[in-house]
C-alpha cells in the first residue's frame, strides 16, 4: 500500500513541478496528500482507486484550489522570442560571411588571418546576441524580473557559446567536417542546446527569489 | 462526477449541476458533525446520497476550505493504526455554515414557491 501512496504522491508532485509551483508548496501539498492517503490506506483503500488514473488532472485541480504561487518562468515564450530575435542578426551575419554585405574587415578567402577571422565572428556573434536580447527585452519586459533575466542572458549566453563552440568543432573534426544532414543536425543540437540551457538557467537565476521557501505557507484567498 | 445509478445521463448532469453550488456546504455540515479525513468524508457524502464525485472532487474542495480557514487539519488517534490527520470545522467555518444554511433555506423556499406556481400555470 505504501508503494501505491508513493507512486500517487510522486506523480502528483511531478505535475506540480511541471506547473512551476514553488518547491516549498510542492513539498507541503505532497505531505498533505500523503497524510490523507495514508489515513485512507489504514482503512484498506488503495490510493490508486481514490485518485483514479488521471493523476495530472487531480494534481492541477488541487493546485488551483490551494491557490499556490507558480513561478512565472515562461520558458517557451522566452526561448521562442530569443530565437526570433536572433534571426535578424543571423541573417546579417550570413550576408557578411557569404559576401552579400560588404564590410571593410571581411577576411580574405585566399589568405585567412586568424585574428581577423576571430574578430569578425566574435563581432557577428555579439550582433546576434544583441538583436536577441533587445527583442526579448522589448517583447517580454512585462514579465517579472525580465531585466535581470536579460542581464543574466547577456552574461551566460557568451559563456555557453564559448563552451559549445570548441565542443561542436571537435565533433565536426571527428566526422571530418562532414556536411551530411544528420551531422549538421547534431552540431546544431549541440550548439543550440547549450544556448537554450543558458537561457533557461538565466531565467531560473533571475527568479531564484520567487522559488525560495517562505514562512507564509498557503496564501489566504 | 459519476452518473447516479438508475437515472439517465441528463438527470445525472442536472444532479451534478445542482450539487456544484452546495457541495462545500454539505461537506462543512458533515465535518461539523464529526471530523473526518478525506476518504471518510467521501464515504459520508455517498451515504447521504449526494454522489459527490469521489475523492478527486472532494479532496481539492477540502484543500480550498482549509485555505479559506473554514476547516483545519488535526491529528487524531485511530483504533486501526497510527494517528491520522482529520479535518475539523473552525469557528469561522461554523459561522460560515450558519450563514450558508440560512441562505440555502431562503433559496429553497424561493425555488419551491416558484415551482408551486409553475404547477398551476
TrEMBL record, chain A:
UniProt entry keywords in alphabetical sequence: Membrane, Transmembrane, Transmembrane helix
Native source species: Asanoa iriomotensis
Spans through the membrane: 78-101, 113-138, 150-173, 179-202
Protein name: Uncharacterized protein
TrEMBL record, chain B:
Residue ranges of every copy of the Transcription regulator PadR N-terminal domain listed in the record: 27-98
Organism for this UniProt entry: Asanoa iriomotensis
Annotated protein name in UniProt: Transcriptional regulator
Domain of life: Bacteria
PANTHER family linked to this entry: PADR-FAMILY TRANSCRIPTIONAL REGULATOR, TRANSCRIPTIONAL REGULATOR RV3488
Pfam families: PadR (PF03551)
Amino acid at each position: 500500500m505504501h508503494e501505491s501512496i508513493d507512486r500517487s504522491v510522486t506523480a502528483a508532485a511531478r505535475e506540480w513541478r511541471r506547473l512551476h509551483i514553488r518547491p516549498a508548496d510542492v513539498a507541503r501539498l505532497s505531505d498533505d496528500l500523503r497524510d490523507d492517503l495514508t489515513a485512507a490506506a489504514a482503512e484498506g483503500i488503495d490510493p490508486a482507486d481514490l485518485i483514479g488514473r488521471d493523476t495530472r488532472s487531480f494534481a492541477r485541480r488541487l493546485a488551483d484550489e490551494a491557490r499556490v504561487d507558480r513561478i512565472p518562468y515562461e520558458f517557451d515564450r522566452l526561448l521562442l522570442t530569443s530565437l526570433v530575435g536572433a534571426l535578424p542578426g543571423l541573417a546579417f551575419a550570413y550576408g557578411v560571411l557569404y559576401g552579400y554585405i560588404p564590410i571593410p574587415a571581411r577576411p580574405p578567402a585566399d589568405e585567412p588571418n586568424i585574428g581577423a577571422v576571430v574578430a569578425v565572428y566574435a563581432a557577428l556573434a555579439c550582433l546576434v546576441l544583441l538583436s536577441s536580447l533587445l527583442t526579448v527585452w522589448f517583447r517580454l519586459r512585462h514579465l517579472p524580473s525580465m531585466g535581470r533575466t536579460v542581464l543574466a542572458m547577456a552574461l551566460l549566453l557568451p559563456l555557453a557559446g564559448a563552451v559549445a563552440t570548441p565542443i561542436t568543432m571537435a565533433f565536426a573534426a571527428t566526422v571530418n567536417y562532414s556536411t551530411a544532414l544528420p551531422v549538421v543536425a547534431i552540431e546544431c543540437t549541440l550548439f543550440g542546446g547549450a544556448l537554450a540551457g543558458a537561457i533557461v538557467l538565466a531565467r531560473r537565476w533571475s527568479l531564484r527569489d520567487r522559488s525560495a521557501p517562505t514562512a507564509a505557507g498557503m496564501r489566504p484567498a | 462526477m459519476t452518473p447516479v445509478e438508475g437515472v439517465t445521463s441528463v438527470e445525472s448532469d442536472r444532479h451534478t449541476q445542482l450539487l456544484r453550488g452546495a457541495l462545500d456546504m454539505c461537506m462543512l455540515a458533515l465535518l461539523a458533525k464529526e471530523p473526518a479525513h478525506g476518504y471518510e468524508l467521501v464515504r459520508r457524502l455517498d451515504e447521504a446520497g449526494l454522489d459527490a464525485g469521489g475523492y478527486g472532487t472532494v479532496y481539492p474542495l477540502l484543500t480550498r476550505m482549509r485555505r479559506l480557514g473554514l476547516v483545519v487539519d488535526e491529528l487524531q488517534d485511530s483504533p486501526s493504526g497510527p494517528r491520522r490527520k482529520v479535518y475539523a470545522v473552525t469557528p469561522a467555518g461554523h459561522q460560515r455554515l450558519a450563514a450558508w444554511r440560512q441562505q440555502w433555506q431562503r433559496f429553497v423556499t424561493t425555488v419551491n414557491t416558484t415551482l408551486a406556481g409553475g404547477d398551476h400555470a
